[in-house]
Design goal:
The complex is a heterodimer of chains A (473) and B (280).
Chain A (H helix, E strand, L loop, with lengths): L17 H4 L12 H8 L9 H4 L7 H10 L2 H11 L3 H7 L6 H4 L13 H15 L13 E5 L3 H12 L3 E5 L8 H4 L8 H13 L3 E3 L10 H6 L5 E4 L5 E2 L12 E3 H10 L16 E5 L3 H12 L3 E5 L11 H9 L3 E3 L2 E8 L13 E14 L5 E5 L5 E3 L3 E4 L3 E2 L3 H5 L24 E3 L2 H4 L4 H20 L2
Helix pairs in contact in A: 2-4, 2-8, 4-5, 5-8, 6-8, 9-18, 13-14
Chain B lengths: L1 E10 L2 E7 L1 H6 L5 E5 L7 E9 L4 E7 L3 H7 L6 E2 L1 E6 L10 E7 L3 H13 L3 E8 L8 H6 L3 E6 L6 E2 L3 H9 L6 E5 L2 H11 L6 E4 L15 E4 L2 E4 H4 L2 E3 L5 H8 L3 H19 L1
Parallel strand pairs in B: 8-9, 8-12, 9-10, 10-11, 12-13
Antiparallel strand pairs in B: 1-2, 1-6, 2-5, 3-4, 3-7, 4-5, 13-16, 14-15
The chains are: A alpha/beta (473), B alpha/beta (280).
Chain lengths: 473, 280
């Protein structure tokens, strides 16, 4: 067999048929077979300058793990990834590889050529390990130092994993009843099965990480108490950006208007998508999702699976959609309608004025205007302008606002001396140090809403900084 | 797991439970709430703190059986455990500096009004309590209220106990007489709180209402609990649950509270049927 596979294109990812999957919550992408993985791995030419590694926020030794996949030694490949990533099965699924490792890949430079499918290979390796390996992670000998992690999302879990591997006694405090943060409440089952998140959390527990759920830090224990009373020498804040934004247009308080956070939390965390769930969710006939990011795609595809006709309403054009291309393509394949260059003006109520009428106070439509793009603004995106007199109504019975989120204000409100920036982001230096000694922060809490892997990168950098801080005390 | 250390039926539809949750008991204050789940697949139920014992590490909750989940909770007994109990959430009642307060409670809301009345009484505040129920067999916590009130008014809708009428009757009489309060604090059904706020508004008496809207996480994440207060959107879980009653859009809050009315009715019926089957 040839040493290299010089095919210009990636091995395609087997996926569920769009017309089938838009009616179920099973995972969309099915994953490579061992043969496909080996074939794909042989597309990597192991170039000397390793641009992919520089493109990875946690600097996984990508050519090395791919070389092991090409040899068929999947466990060895896993061990290489696990050195740098605490959540490989998650990253293989939700990282925007096209702008990171794969965006830099030598094989993808020439026109008409695709990069090596690094993300798909990472996913294959992690899934193979989780299915086939019986090796339990071995806890490192304790160094006697305690660190508290606030929030069990990607930043917190990564920071926890790295510190535990160095021998720290790590406790993760989570406000909700399950660990995982946005991985469990935000990202839908069909994109990231919750069993995979649980497995990754279990792997961390096997490393000695303690996870305390139902603990709203700031309320039940303050940051100061964690340090002074409970003996944690350092605290990492990975509390994310959970506060949903609304548009402040008329009608946002009507029944049938959700924040994307609420809609997705009901479905993902509270399992409202299952017929036997005790948590209600509206099964709209026609749903408008306002926004064009990954969260908007998740909300739209969830609403579709609950049986609705779904419109994405976004004020700029296709080019400007902030969601990953893959998510946009998947949404289109599943029959989501894109109303681009469109902006909502108000949400219209049902006609009845009688509060006793069960039909009173529900969403009955969304009035929008057409937009056109002007000159690029300071962010480089072309700013949209209203086309006067272009008002029109989309008849919908449910509206999901997916306009982004801000950092949760609870820690700022309960932690004297914790400095924040204009939009509520916790102020940090380049290694995640906050204005309070021994308190570090990373992920969306410090940056505002971003990606899983960026949060993991920040958790990793902070873990190193926390280690240096404690060792130098 | 969080153990139920004491269970007491206050009336046929209202139950008190003391739950062992030492971290919550250590920090809880009047006006704050907790969220619990009855079983592993259960919904998250927000309930206002009805009391706490910091020494024993317990938090008291008082709930009315209104839906499937509260039906399931009511079937738990002393010694049983529930998987989740998180709190304290929300901002505590501001009681500092208050000298003369009227506490107006309605139905199961009295359970939440009581710790507020107690805290005020303990700081030397003169407390007028007005509590109202539909009928005599739904009356709860009468003695407890009397013990911390300078003046006490019991009302029932049907006149089967105390005076007949709603809580606004004595409140209006008191205000008409020219008596005033530093604050009126009201906790109960939305419609009752709406009318209490309407009654105090002409007299310019500051009125605080405790809201209990639909919510999931209780930490500011879902926005399901949003209310319009003074024309601005507020989240009950982090900005409240107590707000200036003269600023709250009660009609909107009442409409939103009925979002899942059909689902709740169905769930309640399903839970009841489940227990009926067990009995047979």
């Amino acid at each position: 067999m040839a040493k290299f596979n010089m095919s210009p294109l990636k091995n395609e990812m087997p996926t569920q048929d769009p017309c089938v999957r838009n009616g179920n919550f099973n995972e969309v992408a099915l994953g490579y077979t061992a043969e496909q993985a080996i074939d794909e791995a042989k597309r990597c030419i192991g170039c000397k300058n390793r641009p992919c590694v520089a493109g990875c926020p946690v600097n996984i030794d990508i050519p090395e793990f791919i070389a092991k996949v090409a040899e068929g030694d999947f466990e060895a490949a896993y061990q290489i990834i696990a050195k740098d990533s605490s959540l490989p099965a998650v990253c293989g699924r939700v990282c925007p590889q096209e702008t990171q490792c794969e965006g830099k890949c030598t094989r993808g430079i020439k026109a008409g050529c695709e990069s090596v499918a690094i993300g798909r290979l990472e996913r294959f390796v992690a899934d193979w390990h989780n299915e086939n390996s019986t090796d339990k992670p071995v806890p490192a000998p304790s160094n006697g130092h305690k660190v508290a992690i606030v929030g069990s999302g990607p930043a917190g879990l990564t920071c926890a994993g790295d510190l535990a591997k160095m021998g720290y006694e790590v406790t993760v405090f989570e406000a909700l009843h399950v660990a995982g943060g946005v991985l469990v409440y935000g990202i839908p089952e069909f994109r990231l099965p919750k069993a995979i998140v649980k497995k990754e959390v279990d792997n961390l527990k096997a490393l000695g990480v303690k996870v305390e759920t139902n603990m709203v830090i700031g309320r039940v224990i303050t940051i100061e108490e964690l340090k002074e009373e409970y003996g944690f020498e350092a605290v990492f804040l990975g509390s994310g950006a959970g506060l949903p934004k609304f548009m402040n247009i008329p009608g946002e308080s009507l029944k049938g208007v959700y924040s994307a956070n609420e809609f997705l939390t009901r479905s993902n965390l509270m399992k409202a998508y299952r017929a036997d769930s005790h948590t209600p969710i509206q099964h709209g006939k026609c749903v408008a999702v306002v926004g064009g990011g990954n969260v908007a795609m998740d909300a739209a595809r969830t609403a579709k699976r609950l049986g609705a006709e779904v419109h994405i309403i976004y004020r700029r054009g296709e080019e400007e959609l902030p969601a990953r291309r893959e998510e946009i393509e998947h949404a289109k394949e599943e029959g989501i309608i894109f109303d681009l260059l469109t902006n909502p003006k108000r949400i219209l109520p049902t006609a009845t004025d009688n509060p006793r009428d069960p039909a009173y106070g529900w969403v009955n439509g969304i009035e929008c205007v057409r937009m056109e793009l002007g000159e690029p603004d300071e962010s480089g995106r072309r700013s949209p302008k209203t086309v006067e007199g272009s008002e029109f109504i989309i008849p919908v019975d449910c509206v999901i606002m997916s306009l982004g989120t801000s950092p949760n204000p609870l820690l700022k409100a309960t932690t004297p001396g914790l400095e924040t920036l204009r939009r509520g982001e916790i102020a940090v230096d380049e290694v995640g140090k906050t204005s309070i000694e021994g308190v570090y922060c990373g992920g969306d809490a410090a940056t505002g809403a971003a990606t899983v892997i960026k949060a993991m990168g920040a958790g990793k950098i902070a873990a190193k900084a926390i280690d240096e801080y404690i060792q130098s005390k | 797991m969080y153990k139920i250390v004491r269970k007491k039926s206050l009336n046929p539809t209202v139950t008190q439970m003391d739950i062992y949750a030492p971290f919550v008991a250590k920090k809880a204050l009047p006006g704050q709430f907790i969220i619990l789940r009855v079983d592993e697949d259960g919904e998250r139920i927000p309930l206002t703190v009805a009391g706490y014992d910091r020494e024993a590490g317990t938090v008291s909750i008082i709930f009315q059986i209104v839906g499937g989940s509260t039906e399931l909770l009511n079937h738990k007994n002393e010694g049983d455990s529930i998987p989740d109990f998180v709190g304290p959430l929300g901002t505590p009642t501001h009681t500092e500096g208050l000298k003369k307060v009227c506490v107006v409670g309605g139905g199961v809301g009295c359970a939440i009004a009581l710790p507020v009345a107690r805290a005020l009484h303990e700081q030397g505040c003169e407390v007028t309590s007005i509590i109202g129920f539909r009928s005599k067999d739904l009356v709860i916590l009468e003695d407890e209220f009397k013990a911390c009130s300078t003046s006490f008014h019991m009302m029932t809708d049907d006149g089967s106990y105390g005076r007949q009428g709603n809580v606004c009757v004595p409140l209006n009489e008191i205000l008409e007489k020219g008596e005033t309060f530093d604050e009126v604090i009201t906790i109960g059904p939305l419609i009752m709180m709406k009318f209490v706020c309407a009654a105090t508004k002409p007299y310019g008496v500051k009125t605080i209402a405790s809201m209990n809207p639909i919510m999931i996480d209780g930490t500011g994440m879902c926005g399901g609990c949003r209310l319009t207060v003074g024309g601005k959107m507020k989240f009950a879980c982090v900005d409240g649950p107590e707000f200036d009653g003269h600023e709250i859009d009660f009609d909107e809050a009442m409409s939103r509270s009925r979002t899942y009315a059909d689902f709740e009715a169905h769930e309640r019926e399903a839970a009841c049927n489940l227990f009926k089957k067990e009995v047979l």
